[in-house]
Design brief:
This protein is mainly α. The chain is built from 4 helices and 2 strands. Strands 1-2 form a two-stranded antiparallel ribbon. α1 runs antiparallel to α2 and α2 runs antiparallel to α3.
C-alpha cells in the first residue's frame, strides 16, 4: 500500500479524443455564432426615416433580428445534442459578442459601444443560460424516461 499521492492516470489518445472533439466543436460553434452576426446584422448601418413622422429607426429591420435569433437558436439546438450546455453557452456568447465588438468598437467615437458590448454580452449570457437550462432539463427527462420513450 502506498501512502503518497497517486500519480494521475496517464493521458492516452482514447482519453484525450473526447476533450479534443468537444474543443473543436466549441470552436466551430463560436465561428458559426460570429457568422450569424456578420451575415444578418453587421452589414446594415443605414437608419430608416419614416416619411410621415420623420422618426428614424434602425439600423436593423425586424426580419434581420428575427433571422439572427432563429439562426442562433438552430445552432444552439444542434449543439446541445453533442455538447455540454456550458460549452454551448460559451461558444455562442463568445462568438457573437466578439463579432459584434470587432465590427462596432473600431467605429465608435462616443464610448457608448463599450456599454453596448456589455449589454450584448449580458443578453447572450442570459439567453444561453435559459436555453441551456431548458436543454439540460429535456435531456434529463429523456434520460429518465429510458430508451423506449425516445422515438426513432
Amino acid at each position: 500500500m502506498t501512502t503518497g499521492p497517486q500519480s494521475p492516470r496517464p493521458r492516452t489518445a482514447s482519453t484525450l479524443r473526447p476533450v479534443l472533439l468537444a474543443t473543436l466543436q466549441t470552436v466551430l460553434l463560436t465561428v458559426l455564432a460570429a457568422g450569424c452576426w456578420w451575415s444578418w446584422l453587421a452589414w446594415d448601418d443605414t437608419y430608416q426615416v419614416d416619411p410621415v413622422t420623420g422618426v428614424a429607426s434602425g439600423p436593423y429591420e425586424a426580419w434581420q433580428v428575427v433571422g439572427c435569433v432563429l439562426s442562433l437558436l438552430v445552432l444552439a439546438v444542434a449543439a446541445y445534442r453533442v455538447l455540454h450546455p456550458v460549452l454551448v453557452g460559451v461558444g455562442l456568447t463568445v462568438g457573437f459578442t466578439t463579432a459584434w465588438c470587432l465590427t462596432t468598437l473600431p467605429q465608435d467615437d462616443t464610448g457608448l459601444a463599450g456599454v453596448g458590448a456589455v449589454l450584448v454580452l449580458a443578453a447572450m449570457t442570459a439567453a444561453t443560460t435559459v436555453t441551456g437550462a431548458v436543454a439540460a432539463g429535456l435531456r434529463a427527462r429523456r434520460t429518465a424516461a429510458g430508451p423506449a420513450a425516445v422515438p426513432r
